[in-house]
Amino acid sequence: MAKKTSRILLLLVCTQCKSQNYITAKNKINSTDKITLKKYCKKCKAHTEHKESTKLK
């Protein structure tokens, strides 16, 4: 049986090439603002900013 938690899955999307590179989770109760992280993008071949997107394909 799965645990009932207050965490949601979200995608991290590259701001330059718009590719979906990472999947992560965050607490939806404590953090209301969107996540922005510097991560490595395989398509850009550089460290770029990745923003939160909730559209799971």
Automatic annotation (TrEMBL):
Pfam families recorded: Ribosomal_L33 (PF00471)
Q: Which GO terms describe its biological process?
A: translation
Keywords tagged on the record: Ribonucleoprotein, Ribosomal protein
Keyword Ribosomal protein assigned: yes
GO MF term (any one): structural constituent of ribosome
- Source domain of life: Bacteria
Cellular component annotations (GO), alphabetically ordered: cytoplasm; ribonucleoprotein complex; ribosome
Record's keyword annotation contains Cell division: no
PROSITE patterns in the record: RIBOSOMAL_L33 (PS00582)
Q: Tell me which SUPFAM superfamilies the record gives.
A: Zn-binding ribosomal proteins
HAMAP family with a match to the protein in the record: Ribosomal_bL33
The entry's family comment says: Belongs to the bacterial ribosomal protein bL33 family.
Q: What is this protein called?
A: Large ribosomal subunit protein bL33
Origin species, per record, is candidate division WWE3 bacterium RIFCSPLOWO2_01_FULL_41_18
Q: Which gene encodes it?
A: rpmG
